[in-house]
Amino acid sequence: MSPFTQEAEKLLFRLIDNANVFFLYFDADGNVSVCNKKLEYITGKNREGIIGQNWLNVLYRNSDAAIKQQMFKAVVDDSIKYRRPNSFEAVISDRDNNERFIFWSITPIAAATGELEGILLIGDDITERKKLEYQIFQTEKLAAIGQFVAGMAHEINNPLFVISGRTDMLLEQKRLSSKVRESLNIVSAQTDRIRKLLDRLFKFSRKSQPKLEAININDIIESVLPLLSYHKLPSSAVNIEKDLAEGLFPIKGDLNQLQEVFINLLLNAYQSMPEGGKIAIKTGNFQDRYAEVLISNTGGGIPQQDLKNLFMPFFSKKKDGTGLGLSICYNIIKNHNGSIDVESQVNKGTTFIIKLPFA
Amino acid sequence: MAYKVLVVDDEAPVRDLFQDLLKKEECSVKSVSSGEEALDMLKKEDFDVLLLDIKLTGMSGLEVLRKVKEVKPDLIVIMITGFGYDEDLIAKCREFGCSGYIGKNMPISQMVSNFKLFAKTAKEKKSKET
Q: Of A159, A164, A203, which is closest to B108 when you measure between CB atoms?
């Protein structure tokens, strides 16, 4: 006998079906008998395709790593074995193949006889919270590295200054054998190299507050393109396609700092296409709050496992890269209260997405 | 160029290098290793230029600059730093009355010529005012 009236049961069904959580119930054999609309939506499967299927096959795609499925199954099996509720944070691919973080609460449901009747899974999509946590973690990590780097660079700068100064003074002497002069020139060139690296380190570590003025992103893009010719670019043909939105709202930005960001991103795009290719620059207004810039290339792309480290200092896949360019870009955009994200597919290309708040 | 210069840096090899570089430019140079010593020395002797490191053990370079300018507003003070080019730091030094800023990351020849330029400009400005 149900403790609910017929109306209450109907209401309960509607609440479950429309709830902003995932709702999935399966029997002791793992076959799904109940799901709600949100679960249909995220999996991209309709109810007919879900009911009667094994719950793991419903939640995961064939392409998803088996280990992820086994971990989730182990936690559910534990709930079944000990008849106790559990929770599990799972990463699943949604209908568009995007990763979603779902916090699942697992409840074993027993029949009146005490036999296990099934398992109820209620899931909360915590993807946005995870992203935010990751961004905070990333920002704090970068700040700590920045502080460490600045201290180290300062400590290196002092002895380097002495080595470099003494070398230059020796080089001014007229009576030096050619062998000694040659060696001193090498020392001088190498100290110069360290000095330039230290300059990059200071640039990365500095929390220089941007000098904000109202500027149009399109103007910054236009001002940057001629500057590219001053840099060493691969000789292969690269086409630049611009799609700069009309009626773009101005942002609050530091012209020099933002120019540096776009030069860095464009040079990276060039370098990712040694055989030539296409760079697309697109601007637009985003959600009535931000100006958005997308810089895409048709280069080799970045493997998934490298994307997380892309903005970390000293991370570089280039033979002669310092690994500081993108971390400097990241700091500059953060200091503008903006965001910088990257999407990439191996062998297809990469897109950097920058959002900066309106003035 | 014949300035009387007081160099303040807490590292002896750095002080020695400045001594040698500036002596070559016909400056007479003395050096001390802390802000406290610098303030004492300035009470006893007159100098044209104070070459002052920003990061010192004990009293910081900025603190020394502020104190020096209270008692000797006409003294030409040039700040030295191993922190590279830092706009915010330069702005702070200028606010406290320094005449220029040289970085230990500069090539030596550029550093010496910057020193000469800052000292000359400050001296000319001072003589115009008086």
A: A164
Residue type, B112: V
Q: ipTM above 0.90?
A: no
Confidence category of residue A237, pLDDT binned at 50, 70, 90: confident
Put simply, the answer to whether A157 touches B17 (Cβ < 8 Å) is: no
Return d(Cα A43, Cα A50) in angstroms, integer. 9
Subunit contact B86:A209, Cβ cutoff 8 A: no
Query: Which residue from A155, A195, A209 is facing B88, i.e. has the nearest CB?
Result: A209
Contact B105 A161 (CB under 8 A): yes
Tell which wins on pLDDT, A342 or B125: A342
Q: Are B4 and B28 in contact (CB under 8 A)?
A: yes
Find the helix or strand (DSSP H, E) in which A92 lies.
strand A86-93
Percentage of residues in chain A having pLDDT higher than 70: 97
Q: How far, rounded to the nearest angstrom, does the alpha carbon of residue A196 sit from its chain's CA centroid?
A: 29
**Window A:151-210, CB contacts with B under 8 Å:** 153-155, 157-162, 164-166, 168-169, 192, 195, 198-199, 202-203, 206, 208-209
pLDDT of residue A147: 78
Listed range (A10-14, A154-158, B18-22) with the worst mean pLDDT: A154-158
Which pair of tokens denotes residue A115?
């036999």
Distance CA A6, CA A12 (A): 10
Mapping DSSP to helix (H, G, I), strand (E, B) and coil, where does residue A63 land? coil
For the entire predicted model, the pTM comes to 0.62
CA distance B44 to A304: 67
